[in-house]
Amino acid sequence: MIRRLFGLLALALMGAPAAATAQQAQDCPRGTLDARYCDRDGDLVADTPTDPRQQVDPPVLIFAYTPVEDPAVYRAVWQEFLDHLARTTGKRVQFFAVQSNAAQIEAMRAGRLHVAGFNTGSTPLAVNCAGFVPITMMASRTGEYGYTMDIIVQADGPIQRMEDLRGRLVAFTAQTSNSGFKAPSALLERQFGLVADRDFRAAFSGRHDNSIIGVANRDYDAAAIANSVLTRMVARNAVDPARLRTIYRSEPFPTTAYGHAHNLAPALAANVRRAFETFNWEGTALLREFEKNVPPAQSFMPITYRQHWNVVRQIDEAMNVRYTCR
């Protein structure tokens, strides 16, 4: 069921409208990238189009944060950065509240989204199918970053270890989520021999916060979640941590990747990068919100997709995920 659902997402993206400025398929190195993109330098992300007519320099930059928790909260959290982005690029900047990972990827693929943060698991699909270029992610002042994938259950419930998930209802978030779907699916099958629809029932909540509240309210027996989301919810008193217990914790994964569409004009893309590099977090809503993470997010650090998303690509390979869309 899980692989079939991921396939349905891929099929939906195949039907996404092509951007008017998309590169035409050409004979060039591209690796796993969609046929509309080239990767001549081998960095695994789409090159800027060589034809200036295929580059875009819009008067308004559209920014979208990954669809987790309450969009209204995050519109305010990001406003100071968006003002800085506007000053740095000389553009108006508009916040776009996306409702799903698929909608966010489709928006960039169609040319309606210019700067974005894609969650860990959807970043490879955004890179390969939408021409997303990751450039940065959040980290502590000392360069620490990452989150863990946790399997949570009711604190007073009967589930004590992973093998006890047999026959239970386990919540995932969305098919593109690394911590909410892909990593736990690979883990359950490879390490514990548990296969969805054979050994346990799978449900999709849509978001990490839905999964967390669902376990606390006994809608699900267990859930795979990103511990950073749980930390923020506890800090806001959105959930009582005494009602939950963690029975598994993974090694750290990279966090949300921030970057831009591959076809931004080079000068504009450079200014977008400079906005992330020069943003002063001190005293901002962004710092107040994300320093609750463990480790705290207090700055933007430069990244490369090739290096920092290697572990995620390995999980996708283990699950036979293919980044195909047209």
Give a quick rundown of the structure.
This protein is an alpha/beta fold and 326 residues long. The protein is 35% helix and 17% strand. The longest helix is centred in the first third of the chain and has 19 residues, at 71-89.
Q: What can you tell me about this protein's structure?
A:
InterPro entries: PhnD (IPR005770), Solute-binding_3/MltF_N (IPR001638). The chain has 326 residues and is an alpha/beta fold. The protein has helices at 2-14, 71-89, 101-109, 123-130, 178-192, 208-216, 227-235, 266-278, 285-290, 305-308, 310-318; strands at 60-64, 92-95, 115-118, 132-139, 149-154, 169-172, 201-204, 222-226, 244-249, 257-261, 299-302. The strands form two sheets. Strands 2-1-3-10-4-11 form a six-stranded mixed β-sheet, with helices on both faces. Strands 7-6-8-5-9 form a five-stranded mixed β-sheet. Helix 5 links the parallel strand 6 and strand 7 (201-204). Helix 2 crosses helix 8 and helix 5 crosses helix 11 (310-318). It is globular and about 60 Å long.
Structural class: alpha/beta
- Proportion of strand residues: 15-25%
Give the ordered list of helices and strands. Answer: HEHEHEHEEEHEHEHEEHHEHH
Number of strands: 11
Organism: Neoroseomonas alkaliterrae
Pfam families: Phosphonate-bd
Family: Belongs to the phosphate/phosphite/phosphonate binding protein family.
GO biological process, one term: transmembrane transport
